[in-house]
Amino acid sequence: MSEKYTFKILRFDPQTGQAPYWQSYEVPQLKEGMSVLDGLLYIQQYLDGSLGFRTSCRAGVCGSCAMHIAGTYRLACETQVKFLSTTTITVRPLSHIPIIKDLVVDMTPFYEKYEKIKPYLMPGTNDVDEHHERLQSRSDREKLDNIIDCILCGACYASCPMTAADPEYLGPAALMKANRFVVDSRDDNVGERLQIVGDEHGIFRCHTAFNCTEVCPKHLDPAGSIANLKRKHLSVKIMKVRPQ
Amino acid sequence: MKYFKALVVGGGLAGMRAAVAFNMKNVSVALLSKVHPLRSHSIEAQGGINAALGNHPRGKFDSPKLHGYDTVKGSDYLADQPAVLKFTGLAPFIVREMESWGVPFSRTPEGKIAQRPFGGAGFPRTCYAADKTGHVLLHTMWEQVVKYKTYAERKNIQIFDEWMVTRLIIDAGKAVGVVAMNIQTGEIDAFMAEAIVWATGGMGRIFKNTTNALINTGLGMAIPYWAGVPLKDMEFVQFHPTTLLGPNILMTEGCRGEGGYLINKDGERFLANYPDSSKSMEISPRDIVSRNIQREIDKGKGGYPFAGGVKEGPFVGLDLRHLGEARIQERLPAIREIAINFAGVDPVYEPIPIQPGTHYAMGGLDTNENGQAPEVEGFYAAGEAGCASVHGANRLGGNSLLETLVFGKIAGEHAADYINAKETSVMTSKGFVAEVLEDEKNRLKELKNKNGKEKHAKINDELQQTMRDNVWIFRNEENLTKAYNKIQELKERYKNIGIQYKGDVMNYDLIWALEVQGNLSVAEAVVAGALNRKESRGAHFRLEYPKRDDENYLKHTIIRWDGEKAQLGWKDVELGIWEPKERKY
């Protein structure tokens, strides 16, 4: 265990007019199990109050603190410094999303794409009112396992080569969300969703680079979700299978 | 200056449910939140949400009334019973509504919403989605907000995320608006509205060793408290028995509901040795389990044995090994992941090292059963920030997710009806609001320009440590007084803080300084309430007064801000069909 770490952070403050630059901070070993987030908080609170980054739950579920840490996209809160096999920890914001300040990015395009796929249950004929309990079999519910664990942190989006090449590309997170409803037995609007994701900025833009699946801090498989949507889309379009 | 019919402050489950309630009644609403709603602390809830659905084979005879009884008994009879009955009565509706909106609940073999046993409940009543119930509820609630704000043909829901409210404006006994700062730009503006629902969540971060998110500081409760809304029952802070050693991340009560054991360094299920937990064992209520874990640790019996030897320290073992890998993976996958990521322990092979930590504020902004503040017209509070007194002195597991949705709905609907029936408008207070806005701008500017020697982060660290050392599971006059005096010292030192960063964009230096100010005031209220209550009830345990004292203390603590410190008062408890009696499990 090292006694101290060097945090090398990409800094940017729009108010100074200065281009982004790297700044290093020395952070002591704060405690057993120290995370990258612990280090960033220490810098913000004790060394340099100007450092900006988002954080909330510190437990790997809220999705605030995804950033590029020591070579890949991760959540700062669940990345322990001792597992990074380096004492100089490079930290920069998510890619392919505009930077607001330091490690804080403007998630607006990410959220807008999420909204585009109509991210809510459209039960159609499966609708119930609140006075009756709708059933779902265990095997149907199992199809939602994992896929519902997405925390919308944006790590996949930042790692994806297509989000860089096509600013309108929906991106892995939104597409996986679309798949979450497509595979839900309670949803009855597969046709409309397949249409939304099937245009030139949707599923067929995906080149199956697998970056999203590789970086996902929740170990989910957005690439697999996209493959499923492609399969469904083609079976509807070419094989004329009724969407279901 | 902006104007909406209604304002919601806070974007967790309670706030979003209130915003949807306004929208359903066709009232335009703005929701302000210092983080994006998806980053709210509701997401960390794990175990489940209580409702008497009777889906479990052992729960056939469950009913909202029995759910109410368990809640009142769990509260050590400090809950207001009419509010509790309303609360548990709405529970089945709320859970089915969330399911109808798409929450992927775990299922019974017949395909019904699955339920599991939780502490202090007569039947398995806690509906769950594995151990990620808060996560799926919050995401589904946000999906509904997106649906209504984008596609419904009704008045607006407008989301102002990363807008931090810094002041509540009350004019002649009426809530007329708030002042808020856009964190992304530094812009400060006033938002006026006919009614306000306050849903800023809890304040666990006034303590060290808490399960709460970093954003759960005292500021949320402090802002209305400073403006004149009293706090109620603040001394009742829930200690969750099982938080992960180190970061104190919640290890859900569901671990024990699914059959997990608590063991000491001898491998003994020590809860059997204490009369108040010997019968219900691991699923005794949280206050009782926390005390007995602490007693075990204080006796020097902290630790657990496993294949690699014996670990010893200020913790006990949460043992899931006998459940087997398949069941752990099915029912408690996130627990396993957290234990591996944050403690390097795989619960399939080794007990999880846990210790009690602060988890939930039973107290909060004083409201009635409609979520309405009795003394301030147009002001409502819902969720953990509010206190409609359904939890009394101790909350049952699974009742807090329920509280967010029930009171979000009730407060939103009540406020919408109030707005629709209103004949006057708060716009008559426009001049007053403009003055307050100027005043607040000056206050924030002065704060930002401070160049004193004190570090607010240091003050906060000392505050959290003091609260951890002196206002913990076992309290006494001496320690509480020590904490009270320390807080006065820290308040003095706070006047001399410095803010390093003077910029407008994402100024977390300023934000933390504001949060610390809130922490100091709310911590003081907690300590003042604890000093004043010379009895032991629910989560509040005084070593000198180990018994409950209904004759003198069957009443709510009311705390008002006098401009500098806490002023104490009392308020009657609303009893009902259940007479207070000794609480036995």
What does this structure look like?
- The complex is a heterodimer of chains A (244) and B (585).
- Chain A has 244 residues and is of the alpha+beta class.
- Chain A folds into two domains: 4-105, Ubiquitin-like (UB roll) (Roll), CATH 3.10.20.30; 108-237, Alpha-helical ferredoxin (Fumarate Reductase Iron-sulfur Protein, Chain B, domain 2).
- Chain A has helices at residues 36-47, 108-116, 138-142, 155-159, 161-165, 172-182, 190-197, 211-215, 222-237; strands at 4-11, 21-28, 66-69, 72-75, 88-92, 99-101, 104-105.
- In chain B, a hairpin with a 5-residue loop joins β8 (174-182) and β9 (188-198).
- At the A-B interface, α1 and α2 of A face α3, α4, α9 and α14 of B.
Please give the radius of gyration of chain B in angstroms. Answer: 23 Å
Helix content of chain A: 25-40%
What oligomeric assembly is this protein in? Answer: heterodimer
Distance between the amino and carboxyl termini of chain A: 54 Å
Assign the CATH architecture of the domain at 242-356 in chain B: Alpha-Beta Complex
Q: What do we call the CATH homologous superfamily of the largest domain in chain A?
A: Alpha-helical ferredoxin
The biggest beta sheet of chain A is recorded as: 5 strands, mixed
What would you report as the Rg of chain A, rounded to the nearest angstrom? 21 Å
Largest sheet geometry of chain B:
7 strands, mixed
Mean model confidence by pLDDT of chain B: 97
CATH class group of the domain at 242-356 in chain B = Alpha Beta
- Spatially, the strands of the biggest sheet of chain A line up as 2-1-5-3-4
